[in-house]
Design brief:
It contains ten helices and eight strands. By secondary structure, the chain is an alpha/beta fold. An eight-stranded parallel beta sheet has the order 7-6-5-4-3-2-1-8. The longest helix has 18 residues. It starts with a helix and ends with a helix. It binds pyridoxal-5'-phosphate (PLP).
């Protein structure tokens, strides 16, 4: 199958999941292009996809300035951990940062957005499985952290993001993220990847991050 066919297949599966959840048009596809170069991404842009995700700032800098120059209206999401020494570059290149998970990075982003006059959309990453090796704030600290970002730093947090533990049933993690978003009065939920995006749509995802099902194995 060509990459455009795989893209169309994923789009159709999202639409079917939306339909069965009575959530028509509710989930945005973020096409995760990490490890693939500009030449591999161009056909997906040509097929009409406009929202993309990358997990490393430096890798994204190597391809997205040129891709953004070629096509207007592209939206780039950072979905991997951010170091504060990369905040300036991240704010300059990305439109959405989905991995805000600690005070230090929230402060760095607030400072850079002010300095650059850019207002990025932000998500707080939640470590729903409390995995020690995984980024994200603990579920029970999420509400206080969102309040801190809003009140102390004046950031407008748009939603929550999670990556469930690979070996677990993702449903309970998606349900927990949805519950936390309700508590925090946040409308956006970034959850679901190639293996579980239909489940995520069922649990209220407003965006799904799909890589290998579109671009192929990494
Ligand atoms: C790589 C990645 C994805 C996409 O994973 P696939 O299984 O290839 O769809 C989604 N979210 C994050 C945070 C990722 O790093």
């Amino acid at each position: 199958m060509e990459v455009q066919e795989r893209l169309q297949d994923v789009v159709s599966r999202i639409q079917a999941a939306e339909k069965s959840a009575h959530r028509k048009g509710a989930a945005t596809l973020v096409a995760v292009s990490k490890t693939f170069d500009a030449d591999a991404i161009r056909p997906v842009i040509a097929a009409g996809q406009r929202v993309f995700g990358e997990n490393r700032v430096q890798e994204a800098q190597g391809k997205w300035p040129e891709l953004k120059a070629e096509t207007s209206g592209l939206e780039l999401h950072l979905i991997g951990p951010l170091q504060s020494n990369k905040a300036a570059e991240a704010v300059a290149l990305f439109d959405v940062i989905e991995t805000v998970d600690r005070e230090k990075i929230a402060r760095a982003l607030a400072g850079e957005m002010q300095k650059q006059g850019r207002n990025l959309r932000l998500y707080v990453q939640v470590n729903t499985g409390l995995e020690p090796q995984k980024a994200g704030i603990a579920p029970e600290e999420t509400a206080a952290f969102v309040d801190f970002c809003r009140q102390e730093l004046g950031l407008s947090i748009e939603g929550l993001m999670c990556i469930p533990p690979v070996e677990e049933n993702p449903g309970p993690h998606f349900a927990l993220l949805a519950k936390l978003a309700g508590t925090c009065k946040l409308e956006k939920l970034s959850m679901g990847m190639s293996g579980d995006f239909e489940t995520a749509v069922q649990f209220g995802a407003t965006s799904v991050r799909v890589g290998s099902a579109i671009f192929g194995a990494r």
